[in-house]
Design brief:
- By secondary structure, the chain is an alpha/beta fold.
- It has a domain of 241 residues: NAD(P)-binding Rossmann-like Domain (Rossmann fold, 3-Layer(aba) Sandwich).
- The chain is built from 13 helices and twelve strands.
- The strands form three sheets. A seven-stranded parallel beta sheet has the order 3-2-1-4-5-6-10, sandwiched between helices. The chain has a three-stranded mixed beta sheet with strand order 7-9-11.
- Strand 5, helix 5 and strand 6 form a beta-alpha-beta unit.
- Bound molecules: nicotinamide-adenine-dinucleotide and thymidine-5'-diphosphate (TYD).
- Nicotinamide-adenine-dinucleotide (NAD) binds next to helix 1, strand 2, helix 4, strand 5 and strand 7.
Length: 350
């Protein structure tokens, strides 16, 4: 089964992974269609993530909520949408611990609203972008497969788990065309600097402390964001209806090893002694419900759709550090909220 979408509604396309996916669409000469980016432009979304990368004639940005069924339905009608790729979400575990409500609203109720639109418009294929965190925590060995039972630990992962269940239930009950992907931790340019890797890079540039939760030995499987974007394109165009695909990087690292690798890269780039930067590491109170280890078996995606990651962690991290060095002032503006007023003035919500 192949699909050749010509009018894709990307939700959350002004965020980290959604913007990488849209950049890939416009860089790919095989895709000649158009993209409607529906994004609420929360603190995590920034239209400038796509500045210079999009072909204006083929690109429309709409500020709005995925939970607004009328708006989504109108966009599908107006633009003849034939595929939706749903990135829109609240995505930070620590924020979900402090305030779960918006996670339930956007991640669960918002996904439900999109599915209701697709139920009325069954010619649309719906791809749902999800996380490996729905599977819970692994011990020292083993990998998450598509058959692993869901066992989420945080309000974030529970809300993503609920949305995945809704997508699969709508496919089985109403016969709509859906696919789901569950991916490991992404890293790369345009990552909002509240997540581990960009936070540590910026703090290293500024001589600030590097907060490491607990003993620093939690393990994550890291994937360069462009590799995720390629996997999503493969699933969107060639994935089997009703199927789930795990996406992962085969790059398991402890958090402290990641922090030390970033120290090495920044020391080299800035000509600073490693020991000076290492003295900024601070072990801090652990995250409640902190999952110990994630690791993904992506053999289904590799064997059925021929995808494999192009970046290893060392080259991907080096590229990421260089990008943050080149864009530090801009990213700091985003982090400090300096762009919020400009976004609110220029992109009125509907
Ligand atoms: P992000 O936080 O960088 O971006 C989320 C985007 O969604 C932002 O642009 C935000 O403005 C938008 N948004 C939030 N609420 C919205 C709403 N109600 N309506 C419309 N837009 C809304 O997140 P990300 O890291 O790019 O993650 C994208 C998706 O990928 C999420 O669904 C996340 O669960 C999933 N995922 C992320 C990772 C990761 O490592 N970051 C890994 C696997 C899966
Ligand atoms: P994060 O980037 O928040 O992604 P996730 O929670 O989705 O895996 O965190 C990655 C790992 O780094 C996770 O084990 C928590 C840890 N962490 C720290 O040790 N310090 C930090 O300041 C942050 C943000 C995360």
């Amino acid at each position: 089964m192949t699909r050749s979408p010509q009018s894709i509604l990307v939700t959350g396309g002004a965020g980290f992974i959604g913007s990488a996916f849209i950049r890939r669409l416009f860089a790919d000469t095989a895709f000649a269609g158009k993209v409607v980016n529906l994004d609420l432009l929360t603190y995590a979304g920034n239209p400038e993530n796509l500045k210079g990368a999009v072909d204006d004639a083929r690109y429309t940005l709409v500020r709005g909520d995925i939970g607004d069924q009328k708006l989504v339905d109108g966009l599908c009608e107006q633009h003849g949408v034939d595929a939706i790729v749903n990135f829109a979400a609240e995505s930070h575990v620590d924020r979900s611990i402090l305030g779960p409500g918006v996670f339930v609203q956007t991640n669960i109720v918002g996904t439900y609203a999109l599915l209701e639109v697709v139920r009325k418009r069954p010619s649309i294929h719906f791809h749902h972008v999800s996380t490996d965190e729905v599977y819970g925590s692994l011990g020292p060995t083993g990998l998450f497969t598509e058959q692993t039972a869901y066992d989420p630990s945080s309000p974030y992962s529970a809300s993503k788990a609920a949305s995945d269940h809704l997508v699969r239930a709508y496919q089985r009950t109403y016969g709509i065309s859906t696919t789901v992907s569950n991916c490991s931790n992404n890293y790369g340019p345009f990552h909002f600097p509240e997540k581990l890797i960009p936070l540590v890079i910026l703090n290293l540039f500024e001589g600030k402390e590097l907060p490491v939760y607990g003993d620093g030995l939690n393990v994550r499987d890291w994937l360069f964001v462009d590799d995720h974007a390629e996997a999503l394109w493969a699933i969107l165009t060639r994935g089997q209806v009703g199927q789930t695909y795990n996406v992962g990087g085969n790059n398991e690292w402890t958090n402290i090893a990641i922090v030390k690798k970033l120290i090495e890269l920044v020391a080299e780039l800035k000509g600073k002694p490693k020991s000076e930067l290492e003295s900024s590491i601070r072990y801090v109170k652990d995250r409640p419900g902190h999952d110990r280890r994630y690791a993904i078996d992506s053999s289904k995606l590799q064997s059925e759709l021929g995808w494999s990651p192009r970046h290893d962690l060392e080259s991907g991290l080096a590229e990421t550090v260089r990008w943050y060095a080149d864009n530090a002032a801009w990213v700091n503006g985003v982090r400090s909220g300096a762009y919020r007023e400009w976004i609110d003035q220029n992109y009125a919500a509907r």
